[in-house]
Amino acid sequence: MTSPVPESDELRALGFAASTATSYHGFMCGRYALILSGRALAEQFDLPSAPTLTPRYNIAPTQSVPIVRAGTAEPREWREVQWGLIPFWAKDPSIGSRMINARSETVAEKPAFRQAVRRRRCLIPASGFYEWSRRGGAKQPFYIHLSGSRPLAFAGLWERWRPPEGDPVESCTILTTGPNPLVSELHDRMPVILPPERYDEWLSSAELASERLATLLSAYPAEEMEAYPVSRHVNSPANDDPTCIERHA
Asked: What is the rounded CA–CA span in Å between residue 64 and residue 80?
């Protein structure tokens, strides 16, 4: 059994809740997959052109991940950023590794996220995500996705951190909420998944009232999702291949 991650007063103030495990699959939403074609993503997210990307079956924190955000030349733009939000005022960028998730219930209040939720919201494209549930003496990974393997979008926030020297670093976090009945069998949190009809509002520059945030950031309907067990092959971020999403008896 792994030891709990230490939780300092500083991290509590920033809105980070300690994981129950030192590995990234102990976080609320710590792994996901993106195995869609560039054309499918361009259609889903109304992008000006199809992005070029390689299928990724086991995306892990601190890696480079694509986001969709409001653009300057075009209504929406596709960008690659670091997964793990570095607040613009941070002294040390390593804090980003502890900012892979933000609780939707408190995101507007926490210093690490409150500016971003007002001005820097984004969509994080995915095919599905993983959660681990204890079965007997071990944790069993599950792959969770939308019915019909439709593309999905996590509600995200992005930030730009400027070091004393060197180029700015852009990063993101995934918002989480209480689970729907499907995910509650596996975990006590789930990523916020936004339906396409809410993309424009989430990406708009308008500040969202707390009541509207609560509505937007609610759990996705369980009846539109599926989950099945996969092998522990996915436990290692070094494994990034189709085996990660294969159904495991």
From this structure: 6
- What's the pLDDT at 244? 98
Domain contains 202 = yes
Catalytic machinery residues: 29, 131
Query: What is the span of the domain harbouring residue 72?
Result: 29-245
Taking phi first (over 0 means left), then psi (-120 to 50 degrees means alpha), and beta for anything else, what does residue 164 get? Answer: alpha
Regions in the chain scoring below 70 on pLDDT: 1-28
62, 48 Cβ separation under 8 angstroms: no
Residue 64 identity (one-letter amino acid): S
Residue 182 lies in a domain: yes
Beta bridge partners of 157: 121, 173
Number of compact structural domains in the chain: 1
